[in-house]
Structures are given as structure tokens and as C-alpha cells.
Design a protein that fits this description.
Blueprint lengths: L3 H22 L5 H21 L8 H12 L33 H13 L3 H27 L2 H12 L2 H8 L5 H22 L4 H16 L8 H12 L1 H4 L2 H28 L1 H16 L11 H27 L5 H21 L12 H22 L6 H19 L1 H7 L5 H14 L3 H4 L3 E3 L6 H7 L3 E2 L6 H9 L4 E4 L9 H4 L4 E4 L5
Parallel strand pairs: 1-2, 1-3, 3-4
Length: about 525
């Protein structure tokens, strides 16, 4: 396990290429080199993040991990547990058999990674590292095409690269974890492809690529993944030239058709193959709009407050300046600016004022645009100050700007938060590490050809991930165990822990092995 000094060193080393890239970017030369260094840091920082916690995080990550592992062998049958020998509630995503609680694409990606590199936490988290890194590239290109300024593009990518919240999603610590990293990636990819579409003569190719990314977004989350089509349609309506071209409507329709053709088969397949689970999940998703599901409520300022807490007041000010600048300046495509802002506004409005359930990651997919606005506002404000003071750009002014940017990045990176969670004083984390070691080193006699009972709450998922075991965090009644034993099933059970005290009928059953290891 890494101590805090080693973690600090790794984070500094991982961030260093981006700092060098920032210096180079201010020269306006060697753009590819500065971008390459930024992407190197984006990958390195994320790889460090997925290496920090040698255990499956509670809730979302561990469920993603086990379903993805099972999809390695059964890609079209998403299962929480392969052998559901005990009665279960198909509606309970924490404890059921067929698992349709999330769309499948990010799970397939995780399964493919583990197929290639073996079943491990690092392999399971690796796709998030790759998608996060490519997202930085997408942001750079969107900003560069939009504002025709590589310095703004670099800053936008830099800000997103070090946003703490999405780094902790990558690590698996934050709720929804891999699912929202993937959703944000595919939705951002559709906006990137739309930007390329508007600046290319090969529009048909980019229309197809947009459709593929939209399908990917829908196959990770759901229909909010079609956001780009709203921006695209508005762009056509506001652009007098595009509005009169039949090809504009054809390409939009073709792109939408491709996306539907890619994401609809899974919806039809699951509705036919798993009708009970599919119907329930559709209804459960609908509940998010009208009810604060699972206690995730909040007021209309929930998402704005969360953005403020992650970007900070200074970047919020620059964000607003950048937003205004994107509308006012004649140098930029105002119609594109209006279309993109309308998409962002819709996203925040929908989840703030219509959807009753409030979860932190709901607006994450458009944070990339907020980072771009922040970069534009910061660059414009700095240039304005330099011009007002009648200073000539030189090594001193550039050094001060680099210092200002570095301070802003430091505050959104939140290294103290990263270190505090990994502190040796974090007892909950220490317990998860200790329990993981128990599960990883469990003797085969306790789990091979046996059903393991009495794991710590939801840690049955952990044991099933690390070992090819069938495990439960409870025990069934005596009659159920007797019935299963008569069918040839063998059992083992962890010894008493916390308030889970094994009943006498298990302790006196000589055919049930008691595992002496004490779970924390």
C-alpha cells in the first residue's frame, strides 16, 4: 500500500509533463508537443488514481466490476451472480441475478479490458483512464476549432485534465464511477464530431461518426445522450445557408438513424429476453424524473452549487466571462456558440428543474464545455489586463500567467482531498483493504465447489470478483440450506462479525466449514 509521501510524489511526477506543456503552449509554438505532454499527464494522473485504492469501492464500482467480469463469458447476459441458487427480488439491483440496472457498453469495455489483461482492479478501471485521456484531446480540438486559439484550447484541456471530481470517478471512489466517465466521454465525443463536421468538407463521414458516438452515449446511460442533435438542429435553423440545404437535414436524419440502429437492438433484445427485469428498469428510470429515488433529492440549485464547489469561485467568474465573450466576439461562430450554450442550458435546466432525482454526475457530460468557457474567459481577462497596463508580453508576464493558471489548477485538482482519503487514519478505507486481503487469500477449500455465506454487507460481490466463488452476505433459513444440501450443494460461512452472528443451526452443521478469518 502506498504511503502519502509516495502518492504525493507520483501525482507530482504525473502532473509535471502538463506543467512543461503549459510553458511551451504560451510560446504559441510547438503546439503538438504541448498537447502531447498534456495527454501524457492526463493518462499518467489517471493511471495513478486507479492505482491508489487496492479494493473495490462500495456501491457502484463493485457492482460494475462483477457484472463486467461475468460478461467476459456471457456478454449478452448481464448477471450480478451467475448461480442464483437462493430466491431473490429481480427488482433489487444490489442483490438480483439478471442485472439491467445500467446500459451495457461501459461494462463490455471493462470486460474486454479484463479479457486482455486479466481479472484485476487495474484492468477493470483501465477503460476509464483511456476515455478520460481522449476526452482531454476532444476538448482541446473543440476549443481550437471554436476559438481558433491553441492557448485557449490547451488551457481548456488542462482544466478538465485535473478536475478532481472526474479523477475520483476514474478511481472508482465517487458514486456512479465508470458509468458516468463513459457517458461523459461518448457525449463529448458527439460534440467533438459535430465540431469537426462543421469544419470539414467530408460532412457525411462526420455525420456517421456523430451517430456512432450518440449510440455509445445512449448505450451507457440513456436518451440524454442525444443532446448533440438538439445543438445540430438549432444550428441548421439559425444558419440561413444551412437552413436552405437539403443535405443538412439529410445528414442529420442519417446520423440519427445510425444511432437508433445501433442502440435500439439492445433495448429490444433485453425486452424480449429478460421481460421482467427490462420492464422494471424502464419504469425505475422513469421514476427518477418524478421522485427523488433512493434519497437523492435536492433543490434547483443542486447542480449549480456542485459546479461551484468543483470549479471554484474564480473559475466560475472566468466561465461567465468566457460565455459572454463567445457571444460578443465577431471572431467566433456565433451560431455555434448559441447552439452549444443552448445544449448546456438545456442539460442543466432539465436536471435542475424537471428531474426530481439529483445526483452529482448528472451534468458531468457538459462540464467539458464549462472548462472551455473558463479557459476563454481566463485568457481574455489576462490579455485585457496586459493591454490596459500597456505591458508587452515577455518572460515576466508569461511567468505570472503560468503561476496564476498553476494555482487555479491546484485548487481544482484538490490534492489534499486525494491524500486525506488515502490517509492511514481513514478507518473505513483500512477495513476495506483488510477485507480485500482476506478475500484474495482465502484458501480454496472454503470457496471451491462451495457456497460462501455471512460476508460483510455487499462484500459477497468482492469475493465473487476475486475468486470464482458463489457468495452471499447473509444466510438462508435452515430449511433452505437442508434442501440445497440434499441437491448436492456444499457450504462454508465466515465466522461471527459485527452484528452478524451465525445461528446455531449453521454452527452445529458439520458439513458447513466455518472460515476463521475475521472480517473488519
Amino acid at each position: 500500500m502506498l504511503d502519502l509521501s509516495k502518492i504525493s510524489t507520483l501525482l507530482i511526477l504525473a502532473a509535471f509533463p502538463a506543467f512543461i506543456g503549459l510553458i511551451i503552449s504560451q510560446t504559441g509554438k510547438k503546439k503538438n508537443l504541448s498537447l502531447g505532454l498534456l495527454l501524457l499527464s492526463a493518462f499518467a494522473v489517471r493511471f495513478v488514481m486507479i492505482s491508489l485504492d487496492p479494493f473495490l469501492h462500495d456501491w457502484d464500482e463493485k457492482f460494475h466490476a462483477i457484472v463486467a467480469k461475468n460478461m467476459m463469458e456471457h456478454p449478452f447476459k448481464p448477471m450480478l451472480r451467475v448461480h442464483a441458487i437462493i430466491d431473490y427480488d429481480y427488482r433489487a439491483w444490489c442483490c438480483n441475478h439478471i442485472w439491467l440496472h445500467k446500459q451495457p457498453l461501459f461494462l463490455w469495455q471493462m470486460a474486454l479490458s479484463m479479457k486482455a489483461f486479466g481479472v484485476s482492479i487495474l484492468a477493470m478501471r483501465l477503460p476509464s483512464v483511456i476515455m478520460g485521456t481522449v476526452s482531454v484531446f476532444f476538448i482541446y480540438q473543440i476549443a481550437d476549432k471554436w476559438f481558433k486559439d491553441s492557448k485557449v484550447a490547451f488551457l481548456a484541456g488542462l482544466l478538465y485534465c485535473f478536475l478532481n471530481y472526474q479523477l475520483e470517478l476514474t478511481s472508482g471512489k465517487n458514486l456512479t464511477a465508470q458509468n458516468d466517465i463513459a457517458f461523459a466521454f461518448y457525449l463529448l465525443g458527439s460534440l467533438w464530431a459535430f465540431t469537426r463536421y462543421l469544419h470539414s468538407t467530408k460532412t457525411l463521414k462526420w455525420a456517421i461518426i456523430i451517430g456512432i458516438f450518440v449510440a455509445g452515449a445512449v448505450l451507457n446511460k440513456w436518451l440524454t445522450g442525444i443532446l448533440v442533435y438538439g445543438a445540430w438542429g438549432l444550428y441548421i435553423l439559425l444558419n440561413s445557408k444551412k437552413r436552405k440545404q437539403t443535405s443538412s437535414y439529410f445528414e442529420l436524419a442519417l446520423s440519427a438513424f445510425i444511432s437508433v440502429a445501433l442502440f435500439l437492438p439492445w433495448q429490444i433484445y433485453t425486452r424480449i429476453k429478460f421481460p421482467l427485469e427490462s420492464k422494471w428498469e424502464i419504469e425505475y428510470n422513469r421514476k427518477h424524473i418524478f421522485e427523488a429515488v433512493e434519497g437523492h433529492g435536492g433543490d434547483i440549485f443542486f447542480h449549480l452549487d456542485f459546479v461551484q464547489s468543483n470549479f471554484g469561485n474564480a473559475l466560475i467568474i472566468f466561465m461567465l466571462i468566457g460565455l459572454l465573450r463567445s457571444f460578443i466576439s465577431k471572431k467566433y461562430d456565433r451560431i455555434f456558440s448559441v447552439s452549444i450554450f443552448s445544449a448546456v442550458l438545456f442539460f442543466f435546466g432539465f436536471f435542475s428543474m424537471i428531474v426530481a432525482t439529483k445526483m452529482s454526475s448528472f451534468t458531468l457530460p457538459v462540464w467539458s464545455i464549462l472548462a472551455i468557457y473558463s479557459a476563454l474567459g481566463l485568457t481574455f481577462s489576462w490579455n485585457l489586463i496586459i493591454n490596459q497596463l500597456k505591458l508587452k508580453p515577455n518572460i515576466w508576464t508569461k511567468s505570472i500567467f503560468i503561476l496564476v493558471v498553476s494555482i487555479l489548477v491546484f485548487f481544482i485538482f484538490k490534492p489534499k482531498s486525494i491524500l486525506d482519503y488515502r490517509s492511514a487514519d481513514n478507518e473505513d478505507r483500512n477495513k476495506m483493504i483488510a477485507n480485500t486481503q482476506i478475500y484474495k487469500h482465502l484458501a480454496p477449500k472454503y470457496y471451491k465447489n462451495r457456497v460462501v455465506l455471512n460476508l460483510r454487507a455487499f462484500n459477497d460481490i468482492d469475493l465473487m470478483f476475486y475468486k470464482n466463488a458463489n457468495a452471499f452476505n447473509f444466510w438462508p433459513g435452515e430449511n433452505v440450506i437442508d434442501s440445497l444440501q440434499s441437491l448436492g450443494y456444499k457450504f462454508s460461512a465466515f465466522s461471527d462479525h459485527q452484528r452478524q452472528i451465525l445461528p446455531k443451526f449453521i454452527k452445529r452443521n458439520k458439513d458447513i466449514l466455518i472460515i476463521p478469518d475475521t472480517q473488519k
